[in-house]
UniProtKB/TrEMBL annotation:
Residue stretches spanning the membrane: 46-69
SUPFAM superfamilies named among the record's database cross-references: Alkaline phosphatase-like (SSF53649)
Transmembrane helix found in the keyword field: yes
Record's keyword terms, sorted: Membrane, Transmembrane, Transmembrane helix
A Gene Ontology term for the protein's cellular component: vacuole
InterPro entries in the record: Alkaline_phosphatase_core_sf (IPR017850), Phosphodiest/P_Trfase (IPR002591)
Single GO MF annotation: hydrolase activity
Matches recorded under CDD domains: Enpp
Protein name per the record: Uncharacterized protein
Length: 483
């Protein structure tokens, strides 16, 4: 797979310190108040007054300085700005723990006090305006792009559900046959290099491959009813193993706040509660790692897979409303919303269907029609990287933010949340936080696509990755160099 030739945006350099100000803090007028010469007694009084005032000010300044520095900068705790990766103190080799909080829209970290997530942010490296999901901004395509460094057409998971047009087989989120899952995920890359990996509920991790057989003790089969605490405890228990048996790469997955987002949208108090709970799990993890003395040795990467936007029934487009221009039978439609995917029979021109649908949508006679635009997949914006797979249906519709498509009108009235839209929408962004020996403290980097994470992790682990769509040099712009 050819690497992306567009280099990442360089990280802006820190602003230079402002020149030292030489403006006096206090200004005294030494000219006499009048032309009359003051008496000796008056001069003496003024002299001692100034002397006393100056002495008092100096004493106050010294006292304040002693109090300030004694309370903020203690001996041995002076701030150190690292320019190279920190040397490991307890672990014998680098370890990466990759955490996903499903549907964690960028900005959720400010919905409530999240001290543990912000501890990682403040002492680590953050994508300042969020992580860019791949298109479509759905759970399975994005988790597998993070794991492989590939865009969906190349790793094969082009949607959460789709049909193979050749075999007629249907892919669902419980499909674990290797034929669906292309590319080389991180857990296979790691084991191929003779190292140990462990996965906890990462999409694709249950699929058995040439160098990965989903080992019983290191590959958890998905079960959404497993409490979050149990998941964290399982990961922490890996660090109780002998040092040469600790997996060098681990994944940890939480369904929240995506679950709540679909039910109530991104702005409901339920989202805030879910975010606080995720923060508590991060706190539990940090505490467990600290108790084992390895927190500062572990490279923690916390991400989400996509964002979330509010939806409501008043923002609907009905395919049946296009009947005066073209009929779209339901059996042509593979996905309705928020990515409209249509595969007409081979004998029907897809180009004609697109033209007639756009004519109707732009006529002003279809409710909300101007919020949907149809494309032949080869005419989609190239930035979406959504064409080079026979699995992708020939007709794709892009919706404006918050709008949905249905076949026909119904009486149901519901509001909630959705994702899957164009990844150019800011609402589809999620988070990237890196904390550990190879991440600088308090550093902000520009937003980047999640296909870059694969190379980031292989660089930390010092192993050669498989061909992917990430940029080879990207890691140099985010990670600290070795000492």
């Amino acid at each position: 797979m050819a690497s992306n030739q567009n280099p990442p945006t360089p990280i802006p350099q820190e602003e230079q310190d402002l020149p030292n100000s030489k403006t006096a803090l206090l200004s005294f007028n030494t000219d006499p108040p009048s032309t009359h010469k003051p008496t000796f007694k008056t001069n003496k009084t003024i002299f001692f007054s100034l002397l006393f005032t100056t002495f008092t000010a100096v004493i106050a300044a010294i006292s304040f300085a002693v109090l300030f520095f004694s309370s903020t900068v203690k001996p041995g705790h002076e701030p150190i700005i690292r320019t190279t990766a920190r040397t490991l103190t307890k672990l014998p080799h680098p370890i990466v723990l990759l955490i996903s909080s499903d549907g964690f829209r960028f900005g959720y970290q400010f919905k409530a006090p999240t001290p543990n997530i912000h501890r990682l942010i403040n002492n680590g490296t953050e994508a300042e305006l969020g992580l860019i999901s791949v298109f479509p901004t759905l759970t399975f395509p994005n988790h597998y792009s993070i794991a492989t460094g590939l865009y969906p057409p190349y790793h094969g998971i082009i949607n959460n559900r789709f049909v193979d047009p050749i075999t007629g087989d249907k892919f669902t989120m419980s499909s674990h046959e290797p034929k669906w899952w292309l590319g080389e995920p991180l857990w296979e890359t790691v084991t191929k290099h003779g190292k140990k990996a462990a996965t906890y509920f990462w999409p694709g991790s249950e699929v058995k491959r040439k160098f990965w057989d989903c080992p019983v003790d290191y590959c958890m089969l998905y079960n959404g009813s497993v409490p979050f605490e149990d998941r964290v405890n399982t990961v922490l228990n890996y660090f109780d193993l002998p040092s040469d048996e600790i997996p060098v790469f681990m994944t940890l997955y939480f369904e929240d706040p995506d679950h709540q987002g679909h039910q109530v949208g991104p702005d409901d108090p339920e989202i805030t509660k879910a975010v606080v709970r995720i923060d508590e799990m991060i706190g539990k993890l940090i505490k467990g790692l600290e108790e084992r003395g390895v927190f500062e040795d572990v490279n923690i990467i916390m991400v989400g897979d996509h964002g979330m936007v509010g939806t409501c029934d008043k923002k609907l487009i009905y395919l049946d409303d296009l009947a005066p221009w073209v009929e779209i039978p339901s059996d042509w439609v593979q996905n309705y919303t928020p990515l409209l995917a249509i595969r007409p029979p081979p004998e029907i021109s897809a180009a004609d269907i697109v033209a007639k649908m756009n004519e109707g949508l732009q006529s002003g006679k279809v409710e909300n029609g101007n919020n949907l635009k149809m494309y032949l997949k080869e005419d989609l914006p190239s930035r979406l990287h959504y064409v080079d797979s026979y699995r992708i249906p020939p007709i794709i519709g892009l919706l404006e933010e918050s709008f949905k498509v249905e076949q026909k009108k119904s009486n149901k009235m519901e509001c909630g949340g959705a994702h899957g839209y164009d990844n150019a929408f800011f609402s589809m962004r999620t988070i990237f936080i890196g904390h550990g020996p190879q991440f600088a403290e308090g550093r902000k980097v520009p937003s980047f696509e999640n296909v870059q994470i694969y190379n980031l992790i292989t660089s930390i682990l010092n192993i050669e990755g498989a061909p992917n769509n990430g940029t080879d040099s990207f890691s140099n712009s985010v990670l600290l160099p070795d000492a």
